[in-house]
């Protein structure tokens, strides 16, 4: 498994969840405010203005000079209006309001709103830095602008609690939004993975069907080719020979159509494990019928089977042996016509099943057939998927050999 195959495992996605960005974290404002944006902004402005009015009343009770009170009110109103800019410049606004609220308590409500918005829209590091700045300013404010009813220590504790509440609440909202985003990404990733698994399953099914069609139809079509070629080059053959060749062609065409119909029927089946076809799947027990069919077609084949009871061989293993012998006989018919082919099968439970198909060198030159070699590649893949192995190549006498070993559990 690589990170390029699974992009959600990249370092950016494995960072601390508190540092992950959310939509809107970089200060991009929507072109048009939604109804929800207007409601939230109005509530935030009213909250900041309400805290400011309470601070104005406290300043009036403390008999603050009118000039200072007027300046505080103007600065406080500007701070409340600045709340509308918290989405675009949350860091700068929080820093400015933290310093301003230290000298102008009326701006304290705007500071709490800006800290909340900052904690919602920014990762942990800037929130921690500006939160510390706000705490320092909150502790220093009672000593610079003391309140008559509270001691500086009590005012400082109240300011620290309010700053921590606003920041903590904002971080809680951010964590919830991150959870929602993570769940959405996980659901999207699960859908993507399911789609990829479905595509992979379809691809594997198509490859399996293609291999099965090649193994089945190539054998039948070579019989048609051999006997059709004999009729073409022997137009003066006796009627009995012509009738026998025509019968083989008819039977092979019929068998090919039935095999093709069965394979295509797999695509139309509702489930994958559908074995109730019109004819049973070939196994090791039907290997003799395959050899006999090729003998009737004119091949010379010697079958040496050392398996006492072919019915005891697992169906999947027997079917693989059948396909290997079928493809090897097809290749021998194409590349070594007239040569005697020897098929040897042996083995037992626990030791595995061995099959070997060997033919001597052809009597004359053989023309290469387009697509030669693809069947052997398919056989190698089939044997590997079955847990075995397959080797093939020329023999010292110029012939050809295909040998395979397949597991046979005890």
UniProtKB/TrEMBL annotation:
GO terms for molecular function: kinase activity. It catalyses: ATP + protein L-histidine = ADP + protein N-phospho-L-histidine. It holds the Pfam family HisKA_3. CDD domains: HATPase_UhpB-NarQ-NarX-like. SUPFAM superfamilies: ATPase domain of HSP90 chaperone/DNA topoisomerase II/histidine kinase. Its EC number is 2.7.13.3. It comes from Streptomyces formicae. InterPro entries: HATPase_C_sf, HATPase_dom, Sensor_HK_TwoCompSys, Sig_transdc_His_kin_sub3_dim/P. The chain crosses the membrane at residues 38-56, 68-85, 91-120, 127-144, 150-172. Keywords: ATP-binding, Kinase, Membrane, Nucleotide-binding, Phosphoprotein, Transferase, Transmembrane, Transmembrane helix, Two-component regulatory system. This is histidine kinase.
């Amino acid at each position: 498994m690589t990170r390029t195959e699974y992009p959600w495992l990249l370092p950016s996605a494995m960072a601390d969840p508190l540092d992950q960005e959310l939509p809107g974290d970089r200060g991009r404002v929507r072109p048009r405010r939604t109804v929800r944006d207007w409601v939230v902004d109005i509530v935030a402005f009213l909250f900041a203005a309400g805290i400011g009015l309470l601070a104005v009343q406290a300043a009036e009770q403390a008999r603050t000079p009118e000039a200072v009170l007027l300046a505080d009110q103007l600065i406080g109103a500007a701070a409340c209006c600045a709340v509308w800019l918290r989405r675009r410049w949350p860091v700068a606004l929080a820093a400015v309001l933290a310093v301003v609220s230290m000298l102008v308590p009326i701006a304290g409500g705007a500071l709490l709103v800006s800290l909340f918005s900052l904690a919602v829209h920014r990762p942990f590091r800037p929130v921690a830095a500006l939160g510390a700045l706000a705490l320092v300013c909150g502790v220093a404010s009672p000593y610079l602008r003391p309140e008559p009813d509270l001691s500086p220590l009590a005012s400082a504790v109240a300011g620290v609690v309010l700053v921590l509440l606003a920041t903590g609440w904002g971080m809680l909202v951010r964590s919830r939004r991150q959870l929602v985003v993570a769940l959405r990404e996980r659901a999207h990733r699960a859908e993507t993975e399911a789609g990829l698994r479905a595509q992979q399953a379809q691809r594997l099914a198509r490859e399996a069907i293609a291999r099965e069609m090649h193994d089945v139809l190539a054998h039948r079509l070579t019989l048609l080719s051999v006997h059709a070629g004999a009729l073409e080059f022997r137009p003066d053959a006796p009627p009995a020979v012509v009738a026998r060749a025509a019968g083989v062609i008819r039977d092979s065409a019929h068998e090919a159509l039935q095999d093709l119909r069965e394979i295509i029927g797999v695509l139309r089946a509702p489930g994958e494990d559908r074995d109730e076809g019109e004819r049973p799947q070939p196994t090791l027990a039907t290997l003799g019928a395959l050899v006999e069919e090729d003998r009737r077609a004119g091949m010379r084949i010697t079958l040496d089977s050392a398996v006492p009871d072919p019915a005891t061989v697992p169906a999947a293993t027997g079917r693989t042996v059948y396909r290997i012998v079928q493809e090897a006989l097809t290749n021998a018919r194409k590349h070594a016509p007239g040569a005697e082919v020897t098929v040897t099968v042996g083995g037992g439970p626990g030791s595995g099943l061995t099959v070997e198909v060997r033919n001597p060198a052809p009597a004359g030159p053989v023309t290469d057939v387009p697509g030669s070699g693809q069947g052997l590649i398919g056989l190698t893949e089939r044997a590997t998927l079955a847990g075995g192995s397959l080797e093939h190549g020329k023999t010292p006498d110029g012939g050809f050999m295909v040998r395979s070993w397949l597991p046979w559990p005890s």
